[in-house]
């Protein structure tokens, strides 16, 4: 399975950087959206795996969020914000409180909001106000069922269509 994902990512990279096709929103824009009030950027930094995503074949994909200590993350791994997995690269700069970020290249150029993270930074729910995508990330080996359920509840509260976000 990993070979298939990476082969697809390499093929995508060879396409000359064409923008992917638009993805139908998975969030009701009439619902207010919130971000994590007590977000600690340094604690969020590190390695994550995708536990849930609306992008097929993204379950288990790895992402690295390296905090630079000055207001931005260096991103690498697999981007699960489009219709298909893509190469995750670039930076995401903090733009406001509660884990609100602006990526330079990744995540289809959409703002990224950390909607929720548990107190030990093991599971996080991320999304974008436009509703273009959402993802649940887990630290490798730390995804507990109760925390994953809590992340799903947060996505639901923020207007995301849970029937389109799988693991």
From TrEMBL:
Name of the molecule in the record: Lipocalin family protein
InterPro entries xrefs: Calycin
Keywords, comma-separated and alphabetical: Signal
Membrane-spanning parts: none
Species of origin: Rhodobacter capsulatus (strain ATCC BAA-309 / NBRC 16581 / SB1003)
Source organism, top-level taxon: Bacteria
Lineage, broadest ranks: Bacteria, Pseudomonadati, Pseudomonadota, Alphaproteobacteria, Rhodobacterales
Signal peptide: 1-21
